Amino acid sequence: MRPETRYALSGELSIAYQVFGDGEQDLVFVPGWISNIDLFWDEPIVARFLSELSSFCRVILFDKRGTGLSDRGYGAATLEERMDDVRAVMDAVGSESATIFGYSEGGPMSVLFAATYPERTRALILAGSYASRRAHEGYTEGLSEADVNILLEKVRAAWGTPLDIEARIPSLADNPRFRNWWARFLRGGASPSAALALLRMNLEIDVRPILASVQAPSLILHSSRDQIVSCSSGRYLAENIPHAQMVEIDADDHVPFTETSERVLAEVRQFVTGQDRVQIEERILGTIMFTDIVGSTKIAHEIGDRAWTDTLAAHHDEVRNQLEIYGGREIKTTGDGFLAMFDGPARAIRCGHAIQSAMDAIGLRIRIGVHTGECTISGDDVSGIAVHIAARIGGMADAGQVLVSQTVRDLVAGSGIFFDNLGAHELRGVDGQWSICHARLK
Fold it and tell me: Across-strand partners of 306?
């Protein structure tokens, strides 16, 4: 659920913030260069990360002054002013002490806050961050002057596009939906001139002299192949912040909420709560959908491995687009298909037909099975007899068919969906006879 956006006064400026989750401990999530706290929730991958974070913390998320939904003020905000914004938001939500979690450009301000307000900093987490963006004598981790000029020119010329996504988020650089969201997120975070002003100011920040003043327990997270901020920058922080713990993550992405998210969340949970993730089982009524590409082995043999890899990637993107549109939850991929869950069977059927229509442009045929029944939810996984039934029904379908159980048919009465009764069938591994129907939209 998208949290409500509110405003806190920091001096004369209004700072946009959200607070969500009911964990015992507070965590202030400090964004990088720019942000837009509403647009965070438009991308399912990022929304899942934030939701998981809130499963063990009360999360306080905000836009720094000059970015996103917060007031712009005059000129680029200083670290001190940004620090005041954190304090104002914490005061607004009644947070006396919190873990400060800063990623990328949000790290230096988080360091300053932790050193200045030890009584309000329970712990410090830095992800993909640095002490200084520029290289200095005795500090080679930063950018050279030539690299700084290249970066400034790139931002000047390409703001409004999915800027640097190939380097910042390579794991999703080929995902059209995510590329589109990344470009919107950047545009929604700052105008071109504001982005440049913020970047120039960030390039001047150097918190090396205050690292030793941090008293809070500190966790440094960094992707080992980060192309934006080298992993050596994270090591420098860990070596110079007293009693800091360094965790290098075997990944490429710079941001913490994509390919690194599972490891990041596990490390943060352990660091903040002292507990590993507890898998809590919950039994609910849900609609399960299985999809499968018909004749995938033959197609792969005919077009070759490289072309098949591209086709499969396009298939995955289209399925995820339709799941997002119809409110489906991706549980996992199953080789050449998907296991997804819906809170309503009519949406699952319509999503299934939309997926099949989308596959026409790729030249693929899909078969789909849908069943509604009691499911066991454990973490991000779903299990139970309903899952097995949906899988068996999907295996019976021909190319272009959406087959459903009688249960599904009974639940969508009056929805305008039509059904052809295919009779009773035995489903392998499932007791009894099951009435199967072919679901049509017209």
Answer: none
Token pair belonging to 322? 């339709």
| pTM (two decimals) | 0.67
Enumerate residues 6+ apart whose C-beta is below 8 A from 42. 181, 184, 185
Give the dihedral sign, CA 390/396/399/401: negative
**CA-based nearest residue to 222, from 53, 145, 107:** 107
Spatial separation of the C-alpha atoms in residues 359 and 364, rounded to whole Å: 5
Instruction: Please report the DSSP string for 146-189 in residue order.
Output: HHHHHHHHHHHHHBTB-TTHHHH-GGGTT-HHHHHHHHHHHHHH
Please provide the average confidence, as pLDDT, over all residues in the chain: 91
Q: pLDDT tens across 110-129, in order? A: 999 999 999 999 999 999 99
Residue 320, Cβ neighbours under 10 Å: how many? 21
Domain ranges of the chain: 6-273, 281-440
- Quote the CATH superfamily of domain 6-273: Alpha/Beta hydrolase fold, catalytic domain (3.40.50.1820)
Question: Which residue in 387, 331, 332, 336 sits closest to 359, CA to CA?
Answer: 336
> What single letter denotes the amino acid at residue 335?
G
Q: Do domains 6-273 and 281-440 have the same CATH topology?
A: no
Give the model confidence (pLDDT) of 309-318 as tens digits. 889 989 999 9
> Which residues share a beta bridge with 372?
287
If DSSP codes are grouped into helix, strand and coil, which group holds residue 202? helix
Is 399 exposed, middle or buried, given 0-12, 13-18 or 19+ CB atoms closer than 10 A?
middle
User: Could you tell me the fold of the domain covering 281-440?
Assistant: Alpha-Beta Plaits (3.30.70)
